[in-house]
Predict the structure of LacI family DNA-binding transcriptional regulator.
Amino acid sequence: MGNRGPTLEDVAREAGVSRATVSRVVNGVRNVAPEIQEAVRAAVARTGYAPNQAARSLVTRRTGAVALVLSATGGSFTARLFSDPFFGRVVDGVLPVLRERAVQPVLLVAESEPARLQLVDYLRRGGADGAVVVPLDEEDPLPGMLVAAGLPTVLFGRPRPGVRCGWVDLDNAAGARLAAEHLWASGRRRPATIAAPVSAPTARERLDGFTAALAALGAGPVPVERGRFTEESGRDAMARLLDRHPDIDAVFAANDLMARGACRHLAERGVAVPGSVAVVGFDDSVAARDSAPPLTTVRQPVEEMAAAMTGLLLEQLDAGAPGTGAKVFAPVLVVRESA
Amino acid sequence: MGNRGPTLEDVAREAGVSRATVSRVVNGVRNVAPEIQEAVRAAVARTGYAPNQAARSLVTRRTGAVALVLSATGGSFTARLFSDPFFGRVVDGVLPVLRERAVQPVLLVAESEPARLQLVDYLRRGGADGAVVVPLDEEDPLPGMLVAAGLPTVLFGRPRPGVRCGWVDLDNAAGARLAAEHLWASGRRRPATIAAPVSAPTARERLDGFTAALAALGAGPVPVERGRFTEESGRDAMARLLDRHPDIDAVFAANDLMARGACRHLAERGVAVPGSVAVVGFDDSVAARDSAPPLTTVRQPVEEMAAAMTGLLLEQLDAGAPGTGAKVFAPVLVVRESA
DNA sequence: ATGTTTCGGGAGAGCGCTCTCCCATGTGTC
DNA sequence: GACACATGGGAGAGCGCTCTCCCGAAACAT
């Protein structure tokens, strides 16, 4: 706006000192006599001075803001964004870390391709010093775009191959092991699994982790069917599983939605859950709690991961260059009624 | 970051023209020969130039960004923020308007008092050109702070007295009238209402609108009990209502939560809804759809209001000064099962 | 052929700030 | 008393951009 407020010059005149001195007082004070500091502070208050961030950024090359980017390639994004508590948990993890460092958190949503371009442009121009990115789809091009633009970036989840940036992720294999051990401990000896497309690294880890853990426990070969992370595909996979292996007594699905689909199919077939077949999901999404029965599932420590992600970004900013630091987190088993 | 990319100067050298010409091409082109434009564009592409927003803002006094501020004074804010679809609807209304004008939307959350101060500071320094604010509490001090800082501001909901800024709001009286007429039309002749604290202007409008509409229809005096917008208080108010006026056949609550509380109490007392007593809520929040039975309620055209709010802000920005334009919207009755 | 307008493009002055010099004082040492 | 040496604070050079001038050349009118 044209609201040209008072400038350093004005405050300096008011306080009877030089511009440089006011600047020293306003920022980290270095070698300024206490009485002068007082005079300057008084002048600042009197004039209602607020530093011009543009001018400051021009010389410091810093904005003092960090972007929290929520990106998705699918449609009706905001509806999902503001109904899945997952994002709230991310925000809850990110905010305190930023606040503590007096860095302004700025939420950016990229709900479409044009939005994504505009967003990258904004950040390239210097809209924020770095970005903490939560991509909702594995194929989201945004992380790659940001990294290519030279922006310090940290992802929630592993980056696609070729994209060099920081990230945090869940130890998916460990999560699958938790599920396997829980099922085994509760006496299930013929478990199967509903995996997801091989293209998703996350899904492969969960599958491999599950079979490896069961092998270690002494189980035989584990029947596997693939879904596409949707409830419908989980339902279909369950049907195939049951047709081919009528004796299975447990199912581990690579996400909650598919687990829910599996439950639905089991209910349709009149198979008791967890009586005859136990079901374990993954993610602890809303779907898990709302299912019938409520799903036993593997939960990510989202707040912790988000906080760590933010920490990694701040490290990059302190270092003055994009980095590739990463952290892997341990999952937690949430036992509800389905297993 | 220290990523000092190419500057106008570099591009100018590359293209064999002056800084000014490159600037002309990069921004709205004015009087530049087509072949030179082409040369400049090629140079931009070759160098990977991105304008430095700080430098640009320093002279234009514009950032090209608008803040969408979500503010609340209560605790556990983000949990609420990311589970109530209301905010998703606001965002859905705001984004398209901003995108169309190539203005970068920036979401800011103010979940605590320190956060609020930091946010105002950020905006005063020139973090964005203006703010579209969604205060969740009537007593939220943030709008006042922003207006006092001279920032172009538009509120969702009427500002508190003394705060001069733009706003959009729902015609609450009209909404209450919709409820009254619906109840009357369905044969209810002894309606009561659960109002909210007199301090909330919104609530007063709903109460007055309801009683006025009923008076116009020829109804007798309307029993009134007050709640505090919570489910529990709605339940208690319903209990008092029923104790004092056992013959009532309809209840209009000033929000969905209280309506739900009322339903719960009616169920506890074994009173059929809507059989014996019809219940109408207000807001069409999640609570309305999830209630048993699903609530008939008065809905705000949130997306439309958010879009209008954004339009008002852009008008202020075009005018170059904060303004006080406002718009009032007509509510919509959503008939479900409770009335 | 000269004067007048139009149009394209360059020069250069800032925007408000930070930060590196550098100078003017004090303070300590022999 | 002469020297070194902290220490506080001012001067001024940019940071990268926009935008107002201004000038040269081409197009038109006289």
Summary: Chain B touches chain A through 61 residues (CB under 8 Å). The radius of gyration of chain B is 26 Å. DSSP finds 14 helices and twelve strands in chain B. The first strand of chain B starts at residue 65 and ends at 71.
